[in-house]
Amino acid sequence: MCIQKEVKEAFLAEGMEERFAMVSLSNRPDLCQYQSNGALAAAKQYKKAPMMIAEAVAARLAGKSMFSLAEAVKPGFINLKLSNEYLAGYLNGMMESGAFGFEKTKTPKKIVIDYGGPNVAKPLHVGHLRPAIIGESIKRIRRFAGDEVIGDVHLGDWGLPMGLIITELKKRQPELVYFQEDYQGEYPEEAPFTIAELEEIYPFASAYSKEHPEYLEEAHQATYLLQSGNRGYLALWNHILDVSVADLKRNYDNLNVTFDLWKKESDAQPYIPDMVEAMKRDGYAYISEGALVVDVKEETDTKEIPPCMILKSDGATLYNTTDLATIVERMKLFSPDEIIYVVDKRQELYFEQIFRCARKTGLVKKDTGLTFLGFGTMNGKDGKPFKTRSGGVMRLESLIAEINEAVYQKIMENRSMEEEQAREVAKKVGLAALKYGDLSNQASKDYIFDVDRFTSFEGETGPYLLYTIVRIKSILAKYREQKGEAKGQKILPACGQSELDLSLVLVRFSEMILAAYRENAPHKICQYVYELSNAFNKFYHENKILGEEEEKKQSSWISLLTLTGDILNCCIGLLGMEAPDKM
Q1: Taking the model in full, what pTM does it have?
Q2: String of b and e for 570-583 (b: at least 16 CB within 10 Å)?
């Protein structure tokens, strides 16, 4: 909206810097809709009484048709109300705009966003929920704002876990051709294991290796042979990838999360030798206690930042090495303006080392953004990290099933639809419950996972939002049955308080999207859709929309509802949700 622009011009016309033209939503809606406190801050610099400045600015604004109120109040506030005519005109402009009046960025960026991070051969668990749905939402918000965004799952596929699986397979099925050193033929196309078997093999092998040093040594040797190009082991590794990725895609699909790239740690391996050589040649990397390291501490540091280790004393690579080589790969393939990592906030120091090392050694351009988006922990009602009832780590698939079942039971209590339809609706509503329960929190904060609260159809929940959208769909469908398709109807100036309140929330859409975009903050969209749903439901309960006899007023309301529904659908889409037609 143009409020900020008008206030800036008024301050400038009074000979004051535009930085004082701050406008915010009023915390006293009974007095005004917006407020500017800039006169209080400007008073000191310009040695004038705050009220004198506020009155002069308010007098300039009072002459503008967009304001029905522009007044100065003690000790120097400027209270503002928009005229109902201006609001109606703005809403009609939103209806005609492809993005509801939101102006896409004039300087779009190319961004790679790393928001998956699962390991192959292991099932997704609750710890994989937050990076997936936060990253997916940020990807969608940035695309909506005009950026080119490349989402990468970044699979863990190249370390000791692979060696452990291969070792255990060899122990269980030594007759497989993959273990025959003189085998020269083609390897089978079908994997010698299912995803269920694979998911049992890895934890067994991992636990066994901790008790048996000789087994662990064998696994290290298998890892070395794999990374050195052993044909049979590479064939097994490809089977592991194929089986795992098919299962991961199915699980991510259930979360409505997609990736443009299914890149792996192994994809970065070819970049490591040249990267390490350049770090040595340019004098950044040196030997410390046998290991190759790069100093990343800075004079301004108030806490100890350890060196970034590049190679272990035996020449083996580390996660650091792979993550740095992945940056090299991303710069080479995409030359992004920014790389965003959606990762557990407890890894902040690790990524600080990686980013500093990448900058110091010239792996990225000087103006390339490296952004760490740390997320908090999903906790149970006991305040500890969320577990199964038996105390184990819960599979993500089980969590989704649990929340879908809770929603299904609530739907069937009303017996308003057939079982099959109820199951389909429960999937969409359950996903909204899960995602809104998570995304409504600031990403960096821990939160309590509460199935009962998240699946409630009342209060600040995903089901409440979807129910609001379904209610709007129902009203519009009934209107079409009665009077046909609504075409080109204008929104008229509001004639009641609840209609005005709904309009005032709608016109804040662009401002909200811009804030969510700039701050990588899906929770701002969550706050907005909840507020918009509340405003609509109040309007709905106070007005007989389908029973309104004055045709012009009813047509205006139908347009207002259409815009509200479209914006709610747009917002939940940016959060990775979808509304059913019926609930």
Answers
A1: 0.93
A2: bbbebbbbbbbeeb
